[in-house]
Task: structure prediction
Amino acid sequence: MSNRATNLLVPIISVILGLLVGAVIMLVSGYSPVEGYAALWNGIFGDMYTIGETIRQITPYLLAGLAVAFAFRSGLFNIGVEGQLIVGWFAAAYVGVAVELPKIIHLPLAIIAAAVAGALWGFVPGLLKAKFHVHEVIVTIMMNYIALHVTNALIRTVSDGGDRTESIFASASLRSEFLENLTEFSRLHFGIIIALVMVGVMWFILEKTTLGFELKAVGFNQNASQYAGMNVNKNIILAMVISGAFAGLGGAMEALGTFEYVSSKGGFTGIGFDGIAVALLGMNTPLGVIFGATLFGSLKYGALNMPNAAGIPIEIVEIVIAVIIFFVASGYIIRLLLLRASAKKKEAK
Amino acid sequence: MSFLDVLYFIIPSAIFYAAPLILVAIGGVFSERSGVVNIGLEGLMVIGAFVGILFNLLYADTFGAATPWISLIAAMVAALLLSLLHAVASISFRADQVVSGVAINLLAIALSLYLVKRIFDKGQTDFITERFSRYNVPFLSDIPVIGPLFFTSVYNTSFFAIAIAFVAWFIIYKTPFGLRLRAVGEHPMAADTMGINVTRMRYIAVMISGALAGIGGAIYAQTITNDFGHATINGQGFMALAAMIFGKWHPLGAMGAALFFGFAQSLSIVGSSIPYIQEIPNVFLLILPYVLTIFALAGFIGRANAPLANGKPYIKGQR
Result:
């Protein structure tokens, strides 16, 4: 079996195994897996409304996945997507609330604010990695909590002690009457277009620019890149900044499209962590991220239907997602088994 | 309120918040010293908290006052089993250890909430009736200054956690087992050449970290929240991870860092009733542990170096 085929098979097998484990857990705990997955299916594709909401859910997953994947390609593990997304969310909502401008200026301004905030949050771990060789995983985890507490404090300040900001002005909103009418008044907004454009942007940066070439080179081998005359430190910082900007845009989708405000949070949104799953499943390629985000976004939204339609807690889908990550991460063993299986076939011939 | 009164108020509460952090951070020290990064501490704590509370609720009638302690054992076993999953993935299957840890975190919270909803039909468990209780240590609590600071209205679990830290120090630095553990984490190939079974050492280390994280989670749940829901642990595991790094991968250092983070946490909670402290916006106290960890890593507070082979799967014969 060719290398390419095995690479494609690993995520597919992982997804199947994840769904199987989910079915077994439902069976053992006394639910019907058939009913459960039927409810999940209907929760995703039931009618135009659910389809619209599913696509809305996929939107931030696309951007979170891009953020993780982009850093991965440069050899960095950005667990901080969650925090970068939260500060992006706040920045976009703040710009949306603070001023009222013509839409043509206001909307881009709010989106850029989110990207800049996310980029700034990615810059810190990038700088520390480049200058002090501090492992980015720990710094980004810490930055997540700092983001959570700082935005909560800022929201309290902005709203005079309240739990959420005012709703943003319509001039900063991504909502679209056209898309809403199309999908029986779901919250589907124009963000999906931005997200898909960003997928193209990531592909373009990585495949068609010198910067992308250098970033990938640094990801493969820092010493070789250094020897070839590339500025490794600059590339590490840039990779984190761009990754953070993608994550910040993910926050903008929530601020300007889905919710149109930002509220203080008791815990994380989870989108950033699921972004790791999206990127892994998509093998860190732009096209793969679309696949991963579609799968996980759909699962996440469809799960909301499971308690009503089948009486099954939505957490079953989280379990499935965790198991899928686990299997994708353990790709080595799946590859080994595939190799053995194909070797046996050859012997039989 | 005099300065001493403030101390009497805040030190016991700091130790109280630190106890679970100490245990989980020590668990992290074992795992990472053997070369296995354990981001999954948070998830292991979650499972510990859930199983601890569940066991407590189910068997409070049978075991009476001893229930919280027996719950710790149940929590330990559950978290140990979950940590095996991390061990298999990161040691035998050569998975990216951070990714596997993330999966453990997601799995733990999802699985426990799923079971909570299945068993209790609501988002959180009932409150436990048998809990760890505060008491004054006889004689010691009568000593002036030290008595009210360290021996008045304390939990036994705090003493337990501090004792474990010293035991861990002894094991890691004074026993052959500890020497092997550190060798495996620094240079697995050299250790292997000397006849140490790298895989076995790493499995044991990860299982110890699971066991301690489970106990830590159960202590947290049975002293601080007294029930289990989605926000019970809420980052305590990552805080412990931070304590481990701030303590430079040393058991006593981790204990010191955990005590300090416990202090910061208790300040952010009780600080509003203390003069001067109440002037500081809460957010600074909340982010203090995380900011300090970043500073520690950047080398502003002495150099913090991870074990050399931390995070790398050991593949026999590979140079």
Chain A touches chain B at residues 25, 29-30, 77, 79, 124, 128, 132, 134-135, 137-139, 141-143, 145-146, 149-150, 152-153, 266-267, 273, 276, 280, 313, 315-316, 318-319, 321-323, 325-326, 328-333 (CB under 8 Å).
